[in-house]
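Dear V.,

Thank you for sending over the compound details. I've combined the ligand you provided, molybdenum atom, with the protein sequence from our construct and run the structure prediction for the complex. I'm sharing the raw inputs here so there's no ambiguity about protonation or stereochemistry in the SMILES, which I know was a concern on your side last time.
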Amino acid sequence: MTVIRQRPWALPDSAATDESVYRSRRTILKALGFGPLITAAGGVPALAAAAPDPTGDLYPPTRNLRYRLDRPLTEEKYAVTYNNFYEFGSHKGISDTAQAMKLRPWEIKIDGLVEKEMTIGFDELIRKMPLEERVYRHRCVEAWSMAVPWSGFALKALVDFAKPLGAAKYLQMETLVDKETMPGLSASWYPWPYTEGLTIAEATNELAFIATGLYGKPIPKQNGAALRLAVPWKYGFKSIKSIVRFHFTEQRPISFWETILANEYGFWANVNPEVDHARWSQATERVLGTNDRVPTLLYNGYGEFVADLYKDMKGEKLFM
Ligand SMILES: Nc1nc2c(c(=O)[nH]1)N[C@H]1C(S)=C(S)[C@@H](COP(=O)(O)O)O[C@H]1N2
Ligand SMILES: [Mo]
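Below is the predicted structure of the protein with molybdenum atom bound, written out as C-alpha cells.
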C-alpha cells in the first residue's frame, strides 16, 4: 500500500487467469505422478497437505440473514487469487506462496487485561464458538471491493470467552510470524508482526466477525487462515489475517500501517467516500472481478449498525 506501482483499481490480467494456471499446473503434477497419493493400505492420502481439515465438518454453517448485500457475491476465483497479505509479498498474487503456511498446530494466545491469560488451540476454540455464515462487503483502502460469504463467529463471543477486566479498553490482534514460510517478512523495514486494534465497544459490536471459513469451506491460507478479522465498516487493512494473539489493553494500540504512515492509515479507518486518502479519492470503488465502478458508502453501507459508536467522538480522525 505504501508503494503504488499501478492504479490501485487496475485488476492485473494475472488475477483473471490464475485459476486456469492452477488447473493446468494441477494437471501437470498429476501427469508427473504427484496426483492424490493413495497408499497401498487403502485410501489414506500420503501427502500431509492432503490431510482432511479437522474442522471440515463445521462447514457450511447456517447463513445469518440479518446481513444483506446490495450487490452480487464476488466470484470465488477472484476473492482467493487477488489478495493483500504482505507477509507473503507486497503484491496481489500471493495465493500460491501462501500455501506454505502451516495451519496445525495453531495456538492462539489470549492475554493482557483478562481474568486468566491462556493459550488455546484453534480446533478447541472454534468448537466453543457459535458458527454462522454472513455475507459481507469488503472495501480496501486502495479502492477495490468485494462481497463474500464468510463463515465464523461474532468477535463478541470470543471477547466474552476471554473475560476482559473492566480496565481493558482496546483489543489488539497480532498475525503469525513465521520466517520459514513467509517470504515477505524479509522486508525488514516493516514493523512485523502485523497488528491491528479495535476499541472494546467496536470489538463487541455485532458486526465485528472472526472468519474461519469462506464460500462455505475452511478459509484459504491466502485469505487469512486459520482465523481472520472481518470489520466491514472499516477499510480492509483493519481486517487482520492469521491471528495468533488477542491482547486486551488499556492503551490504544498503534497498528502496523499506522506505524508506517500515520497520516494515511489511522486507528479508526472507517470508510467514508467524502474523506480522501492522502493520495487518491475514496468516492468510488472498483468491484473485484467486474468492470463496475460504484459509489462508496459511508461506513461502507453499515451505518445502521455502527454509526452510534462514533457519535460522541468529535475530536477523532474517524475516517482515515
Ligand atoms: N496479516 C495481514 N493481514 C491483512 C493484510 C496483510 O497484509 N497482512 N492486508 C489487509 C488488507 S490491506 C486487506 S484489503 C485485506 C485483504 O483480504 P483478502 O485478501 O482476503 O481480500 O486483508 C487485510 N489483512
Ligand atoms: Mo486493503
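A first observation: The CA atoms of residues 69 and 135 lie 7 Å apart.

Warm regards,
I. M.
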